[in-house]
């Protein structure tokens, strides 16, 4: 049986078992959000503890946490416990953790580069730092969300960065290429996206909320993607909707 630390590659459903002061507005993850959550995978429960560490344990055959579950702190590549975490989110098979210092770390399935860590496309059992194309770590992160196989970071500056699967243009970077590192998103006219205050992602799309209360979309959004003809329409850069 896989250990709690080694099984993060399993399918993850964002299953919130407990919260403290989660600030939301119609599903948008806002800059002021703080969370204390438990995420459940097919094999592992991942908890964000009040002290800022993340603990994991194997689930039983029924997919539940039982009295025998042994939670252990999750570690970084250097073997040290990841600490200072204020927010944790999950896609189908990966986990993102935002630290109080603005860094973002990731673990789990990396088939499409969704960890955004510029590492090999395989499961990472230990947390690795999310980076830019030049290898510099992400800083000034204000909020994080995850789609099925892609990841989104909102910076304190209002800039949005994405990484991972881009089959339907959900990264919003103007093309359909997967990204193994984080890069800024763009509008349909090619200009840089800025002044964002909220982010949301599910499955194969990304939604942004701008300071002027306009909403922007990239990827395959169920309500807009299927026309009467049955054709699936996708957007590889952000459009207002």
Quaternary class: single chain
Percent in strands: 35-45%
Secondary structure tally: strands: 19
Supply Rg: 17 Å
Side by side, the strands of the main sheet go 2-3-16-17-18-19
Structurally, how many domains make up the residues?
1
Question: What's the CATH class label?
Answer: Mainly Beta
Name of the CATH homologous superfamily: Regulator of chromosome condensation 1/beta-lactamase-inhibitor protein II
Q: What overall geometry do the principal axes of the alpha carbons give?
A: globular
Largest sheet: 6 strands, antiparallel
Number of helices: 1
How does this structure look, described?
- A hairpin with a 2-residue loop joins strand 4 and strand 5.
- The protein has a single domain, classed as Methylamine Dehydrogenase, Chain H (7 Propeller).
- It has 241 residues and is an all-beta fold.
- The protein has one helix at residues 222-225, and strands spanning 12-13, 24-25, 28-30, 38-41, 44-48, 54-58, 72-73, 85-90, 94-99, 104-108, 124-129, 141-146, 150-155, 160-164, 179-184, 196-202, 205-210, 215-219, 235-240.
- Mean pLDDT is 80; it is low at 1-35.
């Amino acid at each position: 049986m896989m250990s709690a630390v080694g099984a993060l590659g399993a399918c993850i459903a964002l299953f919130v078992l407990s919260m403290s002061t989660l600030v939301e507005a119609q599903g948008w993850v806002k800059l002021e959000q703080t969370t204390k959550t438990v995420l459940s995978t097919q094999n592992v429960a991942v908890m964000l503890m009040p002290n800022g560490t993340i603990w994991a344990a194997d689930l039983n055959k029924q997919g539940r946490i039982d009295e025998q579950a042994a939670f252990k702190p999750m570690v970084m590549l250097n073997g040290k416990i990841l600490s200072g975490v204020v927010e944790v989110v999950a896609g189908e098979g990966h986990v993102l953790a935002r630290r109080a210092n603005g860094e973002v770390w990731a673990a789990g399935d990396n088939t499409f580069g969704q960890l955004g860590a510029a590492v090999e496309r395989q499961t990472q059992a230990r947390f690795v730092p999310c980076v830019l194309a030049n290898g510099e770590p992400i800083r000034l992160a204000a909020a994080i969300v995850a789609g099925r196989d892609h990841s989104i970071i909102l910076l304190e500056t209002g800039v949005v960065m994405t990484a991972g699967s881009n089959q339907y243009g959900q990264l919003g970077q103007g093309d359909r290429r997967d990204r193994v590192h984080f890069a800024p998103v763009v509008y349909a006219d090619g200009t840089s996206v800025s002044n964002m205050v909220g982010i949301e992602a599910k499955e194969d799309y990304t939604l942004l909320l701008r300071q002027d209360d306009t909403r922007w979309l990239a990827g395959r959004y169920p309500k807009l993607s299927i026309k009467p003809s049955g054709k699936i329409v996708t957007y590889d850069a952000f459009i207002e909707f």
